[in-house]
Request: fold
Amino acid sequence: AQRVTQPEKLLSVFKGAPVELKCNYSYSGSPELFWYVQYSRQRLQLLLRHISRESIKGFTADLNKGETSFHLKKPFAQEEDSAMYYCALSGGGTSYGKLTFGQGTILTVHP
Amino acid sequence: DGGITQSPKYLFRKEGQNVTLSCEQNLNHDAMYWYRQDPGQGLRLIYYSQIVNDFQKGDIAEGYSVSREKKESFPLTVTSAQKNPTAFYLCASSIFGSGSNEQFFGPGTRLTVL
Reply:
């Protein structure tokens, strides 16, 4: 079974501070990992995925297979980063195409 | 803005009534999904469909039903058998078999049972 855990429901930082949103997963094969973001009054949208190894809006995430983690990081948080963040996993086989989401982390960046 | 539409935005239902939520996409995506979003529980998969006229149960399918008669449409019916239907419902779609599992989401429908 595949499982995604985001241990922090709420995370508060001040503008300019570094931020790290934690994500741990459980999956026996090679997963595809994503971070989705939901800003206030907007629809859920993809932020980044591990296979593209991109930096989007200053965020990066590295897949650590040894620790089964996919933490989202940004060195200097901005107020506009305040949102709900979901980590998600897609497996293979019969699970192909299905996403398993974590519980979500609400990030608040204070001025 | 997306290409996935959901209607209505808000829906109120009396206990014991069935209600159908609409989801339409013009992205020519093969796969469509229904999720339920509850505070502190993330998104949970209700049903998904990878091709027209076929669909599969997700993790919390009890009390829900779907149909996929057209590629563009994937309506969700919340039946009276669903014990706790008040929630925010999200529809999504993706290109199945593309090598990427990125899903695109609709704006959601908030269902309240009175």
The CA atoms of residues 20 and 93 of chain B lie 18 Å apart. The interface with chain A takes residues 2, 31, 33, 35, 40-45, 48, 50, 58, 90, 92, 94, 96-97, 100-108 of chain B (CB under 8 Å). Chain B has no helices and eleven strands.
